[in-house]
């Protein structure tokens, strides 16, 4: 997050406290990277998961993965040392990537919410409205808009009839049941997102009106609470999505390396 929101002096720390803090933060980074990498591998590899909704989840996981690789390690140093040692240029680059990836997450959660809305509320026309092409358009909009926003911020400056209709309705109920489960999971993801990021936006807004006098420790706390959202998402998938748990087992057991593994059925229609 933007470093101009933070105003604090260097805080001296003992060797033990620094070791504990580095260890804790590195565990968070490791969980973020490994968890989201598993999501990326699962959706990319298994053909059954190649759906518009899962492509959006895939893109969200990529953003969270990149955050864990390119942002969090340097944010650890800044948080613990309470100083930025890597120069002004890299500070701007780091902050731009940070803001961009967090903005990408916000856009993708919104797009996933739109996808779930049509899947649950208008299931018959859903396949025509939310196609792979639509999902890819959402993904492009999310990434491009986030890049422009972050760069500018930092560098500123109809159903069928008869018998076929009956079959369609029966099948639709089965699909809609699964979509409702996905919608509930999305609600949890959105709830966790709000809980993680709302404190940051509230503190940042208040900080502007009190001449940036908020304690640096409070700023760092709400920033890392926001970062934790990228760690929590794969854990939510693992807990609520059976297909992700099955895919994870295949990845850990290395069965994913088998030539026919991409066609394995992770769930039944």
UniProtKB/TrEMBL annotation:
Family as reported in the entry's similarity comment: Belongs to the G-protein coupled receptor 1 family.
Compartments where found: Cell membrane
Protein name as it appears in the record: G-protein coupled receptors family 1 profile domain-containing protein
TM segment ranges: 20-43, 55-77, 89-114, 134-155, 186-206, 218-240
SUPFAM superfamilies: Family A G protein-coupled receptor-like
Limits of the G-protein coupled receptors family 1 profile domain: 35-237
Key words of the record: Cell membrane, Disulfide bond, G-protein coupled receptor, Glycoprotein, Membrane, Receptor, Transducer, Transmembrane, Transmembrane helix
Molecular function GO terms recorded: trace-amine receptor activity
Domain of life assignment: Eukaryota
Coiled coil: none
GO cellular component: plasma membrane
UniProt xrefs under PANTHER family: G-PROTEIN COUPLED RECEPTORS FAMILY 1 PROFILE DOMAIN-CONTAINING PROTEIN (PTHR24249:SF406), HISTAMINE RECEPTOR-RELATED G-PROTEIN COUPLED RECEPTOR (PTHR24249)
Pfam families attached to this UniProt entry: 7tm_1
Membrane topology (UniProt): Multi-pass membrane protein
């Amino acid at each position: 997050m933007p470093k101009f929101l933070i105003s604090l002096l260097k805080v001296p720390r003992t060797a033990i406290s620094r070791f504990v803090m580095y260890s804790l933060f590195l565990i968070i980074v490791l969980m973020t990277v490994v968890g989201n990498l598993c999501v990326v591998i699962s959706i990319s590899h298994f053909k059954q998961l190649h759906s518009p909704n899962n492509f959006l989840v895939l893109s969200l996981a990529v953003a969270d993965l990149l955050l864990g690789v390119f942002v969090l390690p340097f944010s650890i140093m800044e948080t613990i040392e309470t100083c930025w040692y890597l120069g002004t240029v890299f500070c701007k680059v780091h902050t731009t990537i940070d803001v961009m990836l967090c903005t990408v997450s916000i856009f993708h959660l919104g797009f996933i919410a739109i996808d779930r809305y049509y899947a649950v509320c208008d299931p018959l026309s859903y396949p025509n409205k939310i196609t792979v092409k639509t999902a890819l358009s959402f993904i492009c909009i999310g990434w491009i808009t986030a890049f422009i926003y972050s760069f500018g911020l930092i560098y500123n400056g109809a159903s069928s009839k008869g018998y076929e209709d009956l079959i369609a309705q029966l099948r639709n109920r089965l699909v809609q049941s699964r979509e409702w489960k996905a919608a509930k999971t999305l609600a949890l993801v959105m709830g966790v997102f709000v809980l993680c990021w709302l404190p940051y936006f509230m503190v940042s807004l208040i900080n502007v009106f009190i001449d940036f006098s908020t304690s640096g420790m409070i700023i760092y706390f709400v920033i890392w609470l926001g970062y934790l959202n990228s760690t929590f998402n794969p854990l939510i998938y693992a807990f609520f999505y059976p297909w992700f748990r099955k895919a994870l087992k295949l990845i850990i057991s290395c069965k994913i390396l088998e030539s026919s593994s991409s066609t394995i059925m992770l769930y039944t229609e």
